[in-house]
Inverse folding.
């Protein structure tokens, strides 16, 4: 009697997919190589099974497709699969390691993103790229001017007025033409960033979870939309601390011999999301004198005992926990409840 696999591990590629199948006891059943089209055809006719994959490029689309076919899909972060690769690394060994990792009862999984979440995430990547290009262009223009003895003020307001000041600078005609082209490129980047932010705002208005996050102090449209894209409903996290830890906002621990040693924040997870939460916390701290609520009292108490950078990280940690509570409970943010939570600085 032919044994049917109960767990499939798929090593994803651009054009080819390596599949490793094993039974409920973890024994090898089959190994096969498919193209994208043949893989869908194969799994369309295969009995309902658990399919495990690494959470990498194309994984979320394929996960949604396989769910439609009746399969149970589990996505695993690549760093949790690597320790299970036996011997030399190759595609079938990776697929087998994915099966091995998925069979562990304590394994952590990545939630499958919706199309809207993926679209939001891509808009943020584009915006981040355009902002970096704009900063690079500004720095280049200022460096070119400095080479000719002109120290031009830093800032977007001044940069937009560059053309009006070029005539007064008495620069060589070739450099003048070059700077005009660079300035036009800078303005086009500003326009692209504005357009991307408009698209993000449109998608934000369609997401109820993201709109609820706007009530949390320090969280604006950009941060709220990125949180909605990356965290979803946050049900994959057991508690708020787990969500904060996934963003690298908890102390890095190195404990041994019964002695607990804590260092600075771990800085794991999504760097952009962590930086947005930290900058949001910093903006709240800058306006602390205007707050007469419990959050303001809590921050002032911390500032009396800790450095301001530590307080900023503590507030970012608290914000992440509040985000988890809002997303998992589906309720509006309530400041009085949020400030009763413990937050270690």
């Amino acid at each position: 009697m032919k044994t049917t696999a109960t767990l499939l591990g798929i090593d994803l590629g651009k054009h080819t997919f390596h599949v490793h199948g094993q039974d409920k006891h973890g024994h090898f059943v089959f190994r096969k190589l498919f193209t994208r089209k043949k893989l869908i055809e194969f799994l369309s006719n295969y009995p309902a099974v658990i399919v495990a994959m690494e959470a990498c490029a194309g994984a979320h689309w394929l996960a949604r497709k396989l769910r439609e076919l009746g399969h149970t899909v589990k996505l695993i972060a690549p760093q949790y699969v690597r320790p299970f690769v036996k011997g030399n690394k190759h595609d079938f060994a990776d697929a087998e390691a994915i099966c091995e990792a998925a069979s562990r009862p304590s394994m952590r999984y990545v939630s499958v993103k919706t199309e809207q979440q993926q679209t939001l995430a891509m808009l943020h990547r584009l915006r981040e790229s355009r902002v970096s290009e704009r900063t690079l262009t500004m720095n280049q223009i200022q460096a070119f001017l400095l080479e000719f003895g002109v120290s031009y003020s830093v800032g977007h307001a001044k940069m937009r007025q560059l053309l009006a000041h070029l005539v007064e600078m008495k620069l060589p005609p070739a450099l003048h033409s070059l700077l005009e082209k660079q300035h036009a490129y800078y303005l086009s980047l500003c326009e692209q960033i504005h357009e991307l932010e408009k698209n993000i705002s449109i998608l934000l208005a369609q997401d109820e979870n993201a709109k609820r996050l706007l009530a949390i102090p320090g969280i604006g449209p950009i941060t709220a939309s990125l949180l909605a894209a990356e965290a979803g409903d946050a049900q994959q996290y057991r508690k708020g601390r787990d969500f904060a830890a996934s963003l690298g906002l908890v102390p890095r621990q190195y404990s041994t011999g019964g002695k607990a040693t804590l260092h600075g924040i771990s800085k794991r997870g999504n760097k952009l999301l962590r930086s947005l939460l930290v900058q949001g916390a910093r903006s709240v701290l800058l306006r602390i004198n205007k707050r007469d609520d419990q959050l303001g009292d809590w921050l002032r108490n911390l500032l009396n005992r800790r450095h301001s950078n530590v307080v900023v990280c503590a507030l970012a940690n608290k914000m992440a926990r509040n985000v988890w509570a809002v997303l998992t409970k589906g309720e509006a943010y309530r400041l009085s409840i949020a400030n009763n939570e413990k937050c270690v600085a």
